[in-house]
Prior knowledge:
Elements: H1 3-6, H2 22-44, H3 48-78, H4 89-94, H5 98-106, H6 112-115, H7 121-125, H8 128-133, H9 139-170, H10 174-201, H11 214-240, H12 249-280, H13 283-291, H14 298-315, H15 319-323, H16 325-347, H17 364-385, H18 398-405
Helix pairs in contact: 2-3, 2-17, 3-5, 3-9, 3-10, 3-11, 3-16, 3-17, 5-9, 9-10, 10-11, 11-12, 11-16, 12-14, 14-16
Amino acid sequence: MSHSSDHGDALPAPPERLALPGSIRAASVLVVVAGIAAFAWALAGGHAALAWSSYLIGVFFALGLGVFGVAWIAITYLARGTWSVSMRRIPEAMTAWLVPGGLLTLAVGLGAPSLYHWSHRDAVALDALLTHKAPFLNMNMFYALVAVSLALWVVFAAAIVGASRRQDQEGGVALTARSHGLSALFLVVFALTISVVSFYLLLSLDAHWFSTMFAVLVFTDVIQTGLAFVAVAAGLLYASRKLKGFLTASHLHSLAKMLFAATGFWAYIYFCQFMLIWYANLPEETVYFLKRAQNGWLPYFLLLPLLKFVVPFLLLISREAKRQPKKLVPVALVILFAQFWELYLMVGPSIGHGHETAHAHLPVVELVVTLGFVGLFTLVFGWALARHGAVPLKDPSLAECLEGGRS
Length: 407
């Protein structure tokens, strides 16, 4: 069915294509330059572990935002979340990061000697557990499995977003039905591949440690942080009135409720991982948390649940906070910073082995490099956002989305 015959008369005037404001583009370029400079300074100064750990934090932060885009589209398709149709261009643009971000992620392998104890053959030969894990923890498998996982994300993103683009031209329900099927398949693949990627990039930093909750925790990180980014983008678009009639306070309310739920879910999973390890009290499991309670890391560790759960939970409880950009956007920014903090706590204490244990420090270089990745992600996001119409006008569910947005 065509746009005009379906619900054309009920729609507001089509908005102009979206573009990043000049101030955001300029700020993004500045932080990219600063991030490159910070990484180069650390590397040139003989601080390879600092440089590559900062790189890992930044690249994983941005990668999570990119893959969230396709994951959220898939989730809303399967859940029949028609309320999100008018803001779908935001997660679609986020998926544009997967190609450049995937290549930058594979470049982590260049810093493997500074990051991963298992990448040193002499160390593996002297360690029975690393020898046992060597068929999985080796650089060939690292590149192969991470590359395959990233490629699958790119393929599914291209297929699902491509169907949306075709629908902009053709209309009808057939492409929506196709996206439903692709979404169901992608979420199964995503559950497996996010585990593989998180195991290699993050979990293997502590190659002797293991946790059956780790991949689930990383999944909740991706969902919570991705929703926070969408909340920032949608909040700014609503405040600028660029999507007037298509993006309302009710849409923001639904998005913020999802962010609020993700915040509670993160706390549940984070506590479960800690509680199960504390209760069992097995030395091969408790070592992870003991590392983060020593050498000055404890205050940093205790700050995390405050930043990522307590503060956003309390600030998002009220109905007004979910509907007003001036309240929602700052909370979402706190969550984005909290994701950086959590990645810092995943990576920082794990750098160094034996007597070369890492000590806590203010993560200045880590933050600047991560901001560089966020800036580059924002530039790619803005480029993708400006290439297509601001709203999927021929989506059959758009009328229902706008009707719900009036409540």
